[in-house]
Each structure stands twice: as C-alpha cells, then as structure tokens.
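Suppose you are handed a protein chain with no further information: no name, no annotation, nothing but its sequence. What can you learn? This example shows the usual starting point.
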Amino acid sequence: MSKFNTSSMHPLIPNSQEYLVYKKIVSIHSEDRDILKYPSSSEFEIELPQDYLNVRSATLSSWTFPANYSTFSFKNRNTAMTFQINPSKLWMNDISDPLQKAIFYALMNNIEKNYYIVIEDGFYNPDQMVTELTNKFNQSVTDYVVSVIDPSYTDLFLQKGGYTDFVIVYNNVSQKIWFGNRSTDFKLTTCTDNSDYYDLDSCCFQPRTPNFSDWGLPFFLGLTYCPEISHSDKYCLPRFYYGDVKPGDGGFWLTPNPNIPGCEVHYIECPEKINLMGPAYFYMDIDLLNNIDETYPFSVSNFTSSTNQTNGKVNSSFAKIAIPTTPLSQWFDTECESYKIFDPPAERIRRLRIRLRYHDGSLVNFDSFGFSFSLQFTLFTPQKQLGYNLTLI
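A reasonable first move is to predict its three-dimensional structure. Written in structure tokens, the prediction is:
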C-alpha cells in the first residue's frame, strides 16, 4: 500500500529523471498568418499546430526569402533630393534667341530656391540611376519654367524637349556619379532642405533609429551631408579617358549648350562611390526565442555625448539573415547559428510573434511575395520508471 496515496487508488510512478530527446521541425509560411489582422508579412503572429512541451532549444533550420526588396522607396525616405540653379548674368546680353532669354529670366527669378526631384521606388543599377536622375532633374526645371514663362513660348519650349542642360553620368572605373550642366552653375543641396517633402505624410513611415548612414538618396549617390557647389573650367572640358560615355564622344560627356553663346559647362564629382545595394542583412525577431545581443547605429544624442558605454539591446533578435542576391530572385539557406536554449526547458510553446526588420528598426517590405522558414524544436519527454520481476519456470 505504500505505492498508493490516501485519496486515490492509482499508483504513484516516481520520475526516473530519464528523458527521451527528439527533434521536431515546424514549417511556417507567411501566407499562413491571419492576413486580415496582419496585412503585412513583416510582422505577424502565428499559432503552431500543437503544444510543444518541455522545449530544450529552438533553432532556425532553413529558410527561403524573395529578393524583391526596394532599395529606394518613399517609406525609406530615400527617393528625394534638392538642387538649385544659379545662372550667370555675364552671358545674358549675348543671348539672341527670344526663347532662351525667356528661359534665362525664368531661372533668374528662382535663384537660391530649391527644385525637388523624386525618383521611382525600386531597385536600380548605375546606368538606370543616372538616366533617371538626368530625366528627373531636367523635368523638374521644365515644370518650373512652364509655370512661369510667357504662355506664347510654352509650346515651342516643350516641342524642343523642355530643359535639357542637365547631364548626369556614371564613371565605370571610379564608380562615382558626375552631375553636369551644359550652361549654368548649380548646387546640390542634398539633405539639408528636403525634409519638407517627407513630412507631407509622416504617418506612412516606419519608426527607425536615426543614424549617419542610409539617411537619404544623396547618401546612396555618394554625396555627403554638406551641399556640393559646381565648378567649371573654361579651357578644359570634363572627360572620361577610359572610353566613350556615348558612342563616338571620346569620353567628352559634357559640352556647352550651342544655343547659349559664351556659356560654360559646370559639373560636380560625387566625393564617394555609388551604393545601390541597400542593407546586407535583416533580423528576425521572435518573442520568447530572441537570443542575439545587438548594438544600435551611432547617432548624436545625450547618451553618446556623455558616456563611452555601448548602446544596444540584450536579446534583441532571434536570427541575423544575410541578403546575398539582388532582385528579381529567390534565395535559400540552411546555415545559421541562431538558436535559443531554455534552462529549465520551456513548459509550453504554442504561439509565436514574428517580426522581420532591418538594423535601423524599419520593417522589411516583401510586398505580395511570400516566404517560408522552418524552426527545429528539441523536446524532452519524461520516461516512466518501470520495474519487472521475472520468475523462471
């Protein structure tokens, strides 16, 4: 009777402190979430097929993600920049063409005022970027001139292609962008004056940590926080000596506007190389499983200016995933050091909250493309202590 308690006739089987250890794989797809509740696949909760009991560890075993990210987007605040045009009065009296004079006076009325350009959201290669910039710069000036010029010149101005003096090219050897104008001095005001554009609809933006990189379109183009002022050389045109920029030009990519006598070309070489690749990693946060300590991007604040301690977060994320390819493609991987060990084992895991973000805190935008990953749980199953008495006959 010692093996029975006083309130039940069921025997008490002592814990043998022996466990069966086995691994269980759980496959999760982004389309499995409640899409009505979580329209974005970058942040959602998912209920697992069963209760996973006595979980000793959790590991990211495999994954596949689409490489369809947009390096440049309105939400990332890196599609806009500003510039100014400062036409010289020295060659004003030499202009005989009435249309060119009307354009000149229109530009004179907008000196030291910004022109805005906004590139299309997406992913660019260098040639696509300089073509986009050239067209956007010229279109911005064209739109302004049309809005202020004498209406009698509007049709003729547009028939001749509008304003076409901006020429922006990419040097394949130095990997730098050059901004040029065939007649007029100009200044790239970069990030100093374009905050008004992004403040038009600030509710669209995701929270992100302010930092000294990825701060806007000029950063990716190789510009700095400081405005860049164009310069000219009357006796030496800018030239790329490695070959033609356009077939047959001999590397002379910027020549004076023949319709404006006495004008000079003006140009700016970006101080840094172009960077169009975007972030190299993103992070997977899973509540209860986060095990990676992460530092934060440097920013000027009371903390960084008054202490030399690190600024970061303990158990910030579960996995750090590299982005090894460019759109449009899909990448697969299984090599990852991401894991979480529970001591003692977690009693039960049934629901997970998942968040995919970049280092600055902004969410990864997968648009309508799906992704999948697998988690491996190591489970401890207690074993019963069983004893047998055998009698041989």
